[in-house]
Amino acid sequence: MEALPQTLLFGILRSGLYALTALGLAISLGVIGVVNFAHGEFVMLGAFIGFWLYVTLSGVSGLGPAVSPLVIVIGLPLSAVALYVLAAGIYRLALRPVLRQPELNQMLLTFGLSILAVNATSILLSPQAKDANLAWRFDLLELGFVNVTFARIAAFVVSVALVGATYLLLARTRLGKQMRAVAQNRLGAQIVGIPIDRVYEFAFGLSAALAAAAGLMLIFQTQVSPFLGLGTLLKSFSIVVLAGLGNLAGVIWASLLLGLAEQLVSQYVPGGAALRDGLFFVIIFLVLLVRPSGLRR
Amino acid sequence: MALLEVSGLVRRFRGLAAVDGLSFTVAEGQTVAIIGPNGAGKSTTFNLVSGLLGSDAGTIRFRGTDVTRTPAHSRTRAGMGRTFQVVQPFVDLDVLDNVVVGALFGGSCGLGAARKDAERLVDLVGLGPKRHGAVTSLTLADRKRLELARALATKPALLMLDEVMEGLTPVEERDAVRLLHEVRAQGITLLLIEHVMSTVRDLSDHVLVMDYGKKLAEGRYEDVARDPRVIEAYLGTETLE
Amino acid sequence: MRRNLFGWAAFIAVVVVLPWLGIGSDRYLMLLANVMLMFMTLALSWDVVARTGQLSLAHGAFFGLGAYGVAIAHRTWALPPLVGMLVAACAVAALALALGVVTLRLRGIYFAIATLAFAEVLRTVALQFPDLTGGTVGIAMPPLFDGDRLLSYYLIGAIFVLALATSLGVRWSRFQYAVSAIRANETVAQVMGIDVVRVKVVLFVASATLAGLAGAFYMPFITHTDPNDAFDIGRSVAALVFPIFGGLYTTAGPVIGTILMRSLEEYLRVTPPWKEGYQVVYGLVIVVAVLFMPRGLLGLVGEVRRSRPDRRWAWHFSR
Fold first, then answer.
1. Does C294 contact chain A (CB < 8 Å)?
2. Which of A122, A172, B150, B188 is least surrounded, with the fewest CB atoms within 10 Å of its CB?
């Protein structure tokens, strides 16, 4: 049995990518007010871009151990830009037209996009899960009391950096302030002359770019498959629900809580590795059961 | 006996009290107008009294019964009807069926009776010729009429009207006031939120002035309108006639 | 609407005599007929929830629960399939009630999220309790009516008629007024005296039970179930894409949508490069329908007058 400090460390490391993924979802939900059921597919596409980069770079002789850092250095901007452009296109062609329609139609649209993306990827690329045998997946960093793979450290560092940068963007830049204003009061923001449409487009693109970055880092830890979006989405949902819809600051502690809870359960509860995968539901259900008034519109 | 008794009502949003210890009563058959500058807590009061919002403290009694924890739909069935400032008709139903909904559920009658009621009310508010039209093609004045008919269909003893005059032309306003006089003549107690002061003067027996979630003054229109505190609260926003 | 009642009576008559019109001897066509009725049931049941403005992503899960209910009843208590189906239906109703009571008093997005999470967690749970569910291997069971597809056809036909009656019953009763109001604006609906939460919960439980019955039929029909099949999200997708394609908030829409789209699926499944990726078509249909034909084929054809309930029959059915 692992020691408690190690469990806690792994839990914290785990929460990094959770925060990165959930923050994107929280932004699209908070700013645009639409539940994006295709958010997991943004993550999945980011992972596929990373995988493609890994295959390409591995083909170049002489790179050797440099492949892992190169995948990150090249992959992050590449996947972020690609998904930003894709999401902005989706916003203009599909999302914007349904913004004035009933909520049911909006949710159906993003759910349809999700099904479309999963199955198109499955047909065009491969339905099979693939492994990226990146060196950092296995190289260990010795911390004295525990050994951690470079992959986990890298994912955490990248997540912290990007989440931090996003909060800075929200707090300091004009566009970020406009996004928060829209999230807090849609009508008011419109009245004071905030270009809502541009803010929406940027928010949706940003959320996809963050998801893509998370997807890229995911290939260091798990298999790449067209179907990895659903599980990712549900965990992000549980975090966003726990934090409170539209509460961007709450995403961090909610992610920490999920990450730690999952690690503790799988470590200390008998048969916990399996229970861990159901925790997201327990969280969603409990929050809706206990705190509905705090979460109501 | 007081039809509606509100005492010590409090509702906070993120720590900020939108309604802060408000107490007032409405006697049966009376028409009471709530006035006050924007953000005074008038709409929040309506939402609390109609049960769409839960209160943080205080009690609401209707016909002597405590309804503070009663869900909104039960309050409607008990005789507390209301309209909304921003009218929101049911878009998939035609004009008549919009009113049928109120009679069917709020007025608790069968479909046959509900239809008869709705026909009568649609005629009363002057939407008779448009009864089978789509609600999306109604003008604002017509939507306000529909809103009133729908609320009347729930057979209210107390009818809360949230700015029914807003956005109407002077002619439409006169029609609306006449209509409300008719409603009053049927013995329905009215509680109004109103910005149009001529309406307040013409209709109300009693005026309640709110500011910062509290009761600033109350009394007859003539007295309240002369109250220096009231005039000050309104200064820069609007002036009383 | 009298014509509609006769129309549906005629449709049921066609369903009854269909096996005697030549397809009864064809094993494949009988299989397809069984499956069609099963998916019509699923599609009709999903649409009933959609009428309240709610997006259920758990109908595939209720279907799977129904399947597991029968299987577990068979394995644990050796109950015959027909009894097992009743047990399964009750179990599904109870779970739907619990899920509905907690989530349907909140905003619609919570319900949608919770149903999706519910569906996925069931799959995980089923894998975790192999003693009860047979784990990844699943549970096998002898074929329904010893594989007589004519008898099974009439059984699922009866379940389909139940779903049809539910769908028409909502349309021709007070419910139609309630759901139209709720769909447009829940706040205003409350103030009109509608117990919004109760209406949503009642329809959700009824709808989930129908989906569960369809699954409870499916399991002994194909004689096997396992977590990945029973809780395949694809079935939730089918449950919503058929009504969307045919026409939301109607009874004919889900039926027509199922016939057309399920036929297309039957073709794509055996045609490279689609195969399992045929679902890409479902995704595309959802997106295109929401953007360009929000009331589906029926809306396009213009056959749907506005969803106003017919008074004469409404009056009859409300008694």
1. yes
2. A172
CA distance linking residue B48 with residue B55, whole number of Å: 6
Distance CA B209, CA B223 (A): 11
CB A135 within 8 Å of CB A151: no
DSSP-based three-state secondary structure for C57:
coil
Own/partner pairs, C110-113, CB within 8 angstroms, 24+ separation: C110/A241, C110/A288, C110/A295, C111/C54, C111/C55, C111/C56, C112/A35, C112/A107, C112/C54, C112/C55, C112/C56, C112/C57, C113/A35, C113/A237, C113/A241, C113/A284
List CB contacts (< 8 A) between B50 and chain C: 191
Q: Using CB atoms and an 8 Å cut-off, which of residues 97-116 of chain B contact chain C?
A: 97, 100-102, 104-108, 110-112, 115
Asked whether the predicted pLDDT for residue A297 surpasses 50, the reply is no
Token pair of B152 as six digits:
């009347």
Q: What is the pLDDT of residues C35-59, one digit of tens each?
A: 999 999 999 999 999 999 999 999 9
Structure tokens that stand for B169 in this block: 């032309």
pLDDT for C305: 53
In the predicted model, is pLDDT for residue C310 greater than 70?
A: no
Taking CA–CA distances from C128, the nearest residue in chain A reads A274
Q: Give per-residue pLDDT as tens, B80-103.
A: 999 999 998 999 999 999 999 999
pLDDT band at B21 (very low <50, low <70, confident <90, very high): very high
- The pLDDT tens digits of the residues spanning C162-195 come to 999 999 999 999 999 999 999 999 999 999 999 9
Integer CA distances (angstroms), A147 to A65, A133, A140, A288, C165, in order: 19, 19, 6, 38, 63
HSE of C61, CA atoms in CB hemisphere, 13 A: 20
Nearest CB to C117: which of A123, A280, A297?
A280
Mean pLDDT of C307-311: 48
Residue A145 has pLDDT above 80, yes or no: no
**pLDDT value for C318:** 36
Show the CA angle centred on residue B126, arms to residues B124 and B129, nearest 5°: 120
Nearest CA in chain A to C275: A123
| Residues B76, C193 contacting (CB under 8 angstroms) | yes
B92: nearest CB among C189, C194, C306: C306
- Paired with A130 in beta bridges are A224
Q: For the purposes of burial, counting CB atoms within 10 Å of the CB of B9, is it exposed (0-12), middle (13-18) or buried (19 or more)?
A: buried
Enclosing H/E stretch for B17: strand B16-27
A chain contacts of residue C179, beta-carbon cutoff 8 Å: none
Question: In B, which residues are within 8 Å of C309 by CB distance?
Answer: 97
Chains that touch A (3 or more CB pairs under 8 A): C
A292: pLDDT confidence band, cut at 50, 70 and 90?
Answer: low
Phi, psi values for residue A141, rounded to 5°:
-105, 125
Could you report the per-residue pLDDT of A221-230, keeping only the tens digit for each?
A: 889 999 999 9
Question: Are the C-beta atoms of B151 and B125 separated by less than 8 Å?
Answer: no
Find the length of chain A. 297
Of C188, C307, C315, the CB nearest to B84: C188
Q: Which helix (H) or strand (E) holds B16?
A: strand B16-27
Asked if the Cβ–Cβ distance from B82 to C190 is below 8 Å, we say no
Residues 237-266 of C with CB under 8 A from A: 237, 240, 244
**DSSP assignment letter at C143:** P
Q: C286 and A35: CB-CB below 8 Å? A: no
Query: What's the pLDDT tens digit per position in B4-19?
Result: 999 999 999 877 889 9
Mean pLDDT of chain A: 88
B92 Cβ under 8 Å from any chain C Cβ:
yes
Q: Does C109 touch chain A (CB under 8 A)?
A: yes
Query: Do the beta carbons of residue B210 and residue B34 sit within 8 Å?
Result: yes
Output the pTM of the full model. 0.92
